[in-house]
Amino acid sequence: QLYKNFIQPHQKQKASPMRSTSENSLVAMDFSGQKTRVIENPSEALSVAVEEGLSWRRRSCHRLSGHGSPSATQSSVSSLAIHLSQPWFHGKLSRDEAQRLITHQGPIDGVFLLRDSQSNPKTFVLSLCHMQKIKHFQILPVDDEGQVFYSLDDGHTQFTDLIQLVDFYQLNRGTLPCKLKHHCAQITL
Asked: Per the database record, which ranges form the SH2 domain (predicted)?
């Protein structure tokens, strides 16, 4: 159907105020080769869309950190700024305060929050409730060819920012004991 929408020429309608359905259709295109082609395979179209999204995030992260090759410090500062507005990010919260906050919200599997690490200033911590126990996982910055990524599993799975990391673990358990289900609300104790 996508191919037909692309190949079929737009036919002008006589003074009709309605638009044709082909004008409202979207077609996945590949502009990488010498010749433009329509992407007909839905899984290929999805993988191209995901890759485009990732490269857009990398470019916007790069723009936030300044021109040229960003240093690890610049990159982590810009990434931190991105996460300050997220409801699951609690900033300078101690381990004990995180445990109290999660317990106060209810010891339900998947309740989580992210915070700055107090023991290692360049890292973050994911505090997560599983089987009525609060567990803490260090999120380490991983330098890969001058670009900083974040990882929970020693660099095996890398994310350009904490938003990406949280999105991933809300859909996949990965190395965690359970998926991230409910972010912990920011309340005053």
From this structure: 88-184
